[in-house]
């Protein structure tokens, strides 16, 4: 029995879309996908077979790659410094398809160009395994070949990582497969394998050609990865954006990427709203305490508003939505509860105020402590829109009947309007939850109605105060008798 293993690596250049577009590949090189169909090449034997890339196989290939990358990134490989940044590879079907075009020729070798619209600098590792008189599964071969690529770490050192050798300065032994695997700018991979039999020297040799395409390739004279411990700033940025956008901004310097800009803007708005929510109802609370009165504030409206906020908070928390998408509701719930307590207290019901406090605390525990089924929270979230509208519009009705907004804080009203409008955008970007989007839309409408009332009655109050002031001045003016002279 006999086994022969050969391998190779290539570093690629740049380009853009449509596989037959001459601008996709430099130097008039032929793209591997130009004019290709799903047919096998003329040199393929009858028994040729493309190895199915099932989800299990894809996961296995990714896991091997990412374990190797993690070992290097953590500084666990002798002679190599840890990496300040090395993203987890994900599978890319287009890269896989281009790898299939290569192996379906049944000719072992690199193709000249495989760039795509999304990845203009695609790199490639190739390897082949041949044997007869033994059973070797494709998965066994993939494991052996990937391990051999990674084993090239013995042929390199950190100097080659800090600056990949220029043309003509390559080390005596291969390092290209290893460096391609641990390249920090590579974020995706797609692989393919073909297996076929050929009779050679009286033996039926089984040939397995294996190709992996990577979203980015090594540039000579440039670092394979940036050494250093992962910085706290990097970890913070990864909280603000996903790995794809981090790579777009900090590795590819694609600062004008629209999708990533919207995602980052959404995160920024989300945290801005949360920061604002810490104080959004404090002016309202302060106004009640200063006047020792909650005149004009509808307890019914406060309770409905608190119910809607609390259900929304619990629904988001249990669903595991990012804190930036709902964190403001936790502060709004606390402040709204305080307003409810003050309305009862200054309304002459201290006992009711204390009962309200205990009851609300128990409700929050039941909703967010894992005691409430998600199905109930979903149903309650559906009722949020009418409850929210009823609560807000009942306050608007009270304002109309009173002819003023009473102790309502203008600052609070306008901050709530701005926050609910911004939340429509952040919900679309971060959760895509239609129920949340509709809820914030309804909230924005109701907040707008009250904000308009604040402006209207503000101007009306000024006019009334002006008239009252004039009347008071006239009343205080001393009376004089007029004298006639002839």
TrEMBL record:
Record's compositionally biased regions (Basic residues): 476-486
Transmembrane segments: 264-282, 294-318, 330-348, 360-383, 403-425, 437-458
Location of the protein in the cell: Membrane; Secreted
Segments for region (Disordered): 463-486
UniProt-recorded name of the protein: Mannose-P-dolichol utilization defect 1 protein homolog
Main location: membrane
InterPro entries with a match to the protein in the record: CAP_dom, CAP_sf, MannP-dilichol_defect-1, PQ-loop_rpt, V5_allergen-like
Any GO CC annotation of this UniProt entry: extracellular region
